């Protein structure tokens, strides 16, 4: 069934100059790593000629000399001991400049003028800000806000005073517990208390020895002429091999 289709598939021919084929070839050339490094590989095969006086070599040597710690400090080492001619350190320009830079970076010296002038401020007593602060303090003051009432003087034999004293005595914790003061320091044994008696009764109820009576403690004598005993004897005689 598929033999004709398979044979037809092998006979299809696409022209090499169609736009799709050309686009695929261009894309393959763009993404090809081999073509990407082809020029570099050919340049490596030709070799190179680098002379000692070439510009890149001189640039590298100059950069190395600049970056060298020895070359960097060579001028400083040569100038050591040549600072002669200044009678004091203050007259030396470099030392004066260093002291000036240190003074600018010092936080204490930076705030010295501010700290000196901080305590020299004089404000008149009738300034608007001072008056506003005083009025605000008066408004938020607890002394002026609360007006305590005067102390009333009452007769001790008035009915409302007597009633208030009785109410205070009833609410007083000391008066409420005064009848228990005589119990302090008195020893008390738990024997005979409600909890102890309750525990003893519960123990007696749960005691197996008191709840059950053992059979050997019961006095019992079997009756020999009872119907069940006579029947048992008769059955034994009938089943006896003798």
UniProtKB/TrEMBL annotation:
SMART domains: NEBU
A Gene Ontology BP annotation from the UniProt entry: cardiac muscle thin filament assembly
Keyword Cell membrane: no
A Pfam family the protein falls into: Nebulin
Entry keyword Magnesium: no
A GO term, aspect molecular function: actin filament binding
A single GO cellular-component term on record: Z disc
InterPro entries: NEBU/NEBL (IPR055297), Nebulin-like (IPR013998), Nebulin_repeat (IPR000900)
Keywords on record: Actin-binding, Repeat
PANTHER family: NEBULIN
Protein name: NEBU protein
Gene name of the encoded protein: Neb_9
């Amino acid at each position: 069934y598929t033999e004709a289709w398979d044979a037809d598939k092998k006979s299809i021919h696409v022209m090499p100059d169609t736009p799709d084929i050309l686009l695929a070839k261009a894309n393959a050339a763009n993404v090809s790593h081999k073509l990407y490094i082809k020029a570099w590989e050919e340049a490596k095969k030709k070799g190179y000629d680098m002379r000692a006086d070439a510009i890149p070599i001189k640039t590298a040597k100059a950069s190395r000399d600049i970056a060298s710690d020895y070359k960097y400090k060579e001028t400083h080492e040569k100038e050591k001991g040549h600072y002669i001619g200044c009678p004091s350190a203050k007259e030396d320009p470099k030392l004066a400049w260093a002291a000036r830079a240190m003074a600018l970076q010092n936080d204490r010296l930076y705030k010295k003028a501010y700290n000196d002038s901080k305590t020299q401020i004089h404000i008149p007593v009738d300034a608007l800000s001072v008056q506003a602060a005083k009025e605000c303090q008066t408004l938020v003051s607890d002394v002026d806000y609360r007006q305590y009432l005067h102390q009333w003087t009452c007769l001790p034999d008035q009915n409302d005073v007597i009633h208030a004293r009785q109410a205070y005595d009833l609410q007083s914790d000391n008066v409420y517990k005064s009848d228990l003061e005589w119990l302090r320091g008195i020893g008390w044994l738990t024997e005979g208390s409600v909890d102890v008696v309750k525990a003893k009764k519960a123990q007696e109820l749960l005691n197996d020895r008191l709840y059950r009576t053992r059979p050997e403690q019961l006095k019992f004598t079997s009756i020999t002429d009872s119907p069940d005993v006579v029947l048992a004897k008769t059955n034994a005689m009938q089943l006896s091999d003798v």
